[in-house]
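Problem: given the chain below (133 residues), write out its structure.
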Amino acid sequence: MQRLLLLPCLAAVLATAGCNKDEAEATGHEGVKIVFVTDSGYTYQNDTVGLSDTLRIGLEITEGDEDLRTLYVDVSYDDGTPLRRDSLHMGPNPFYHTVWPIMRDTAGTEKWIFTAVDENDDHIARSLTFTVQ
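Solution.
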């Protein structure tokens, strides 16, 4: 008898889990977007770079339903805990910002994380990972 009750319960759980929509799609809410600038001279994808190289990363950040608020720039070395490198108030929409990270003089990985937050505390993070050799 318990097996018979378990089957409908399991089916109901699986059916509702499979029907969940992305929150933005379900509510019609548009969130913050970050796009890397792909013009000549900009780094916009994961790459292998030299020791102490200086990169140029351009960001175009577009607001969704709410005004832009804060941009956070963090870096994680060798998959460690991210460290805050910068935070700044974002101005007009779209907001453009260029970061000039200098790679460390030690071989390893650096993951640069860019997090944009709007007035509703909605956020999105994009990252680039560099193998430093």
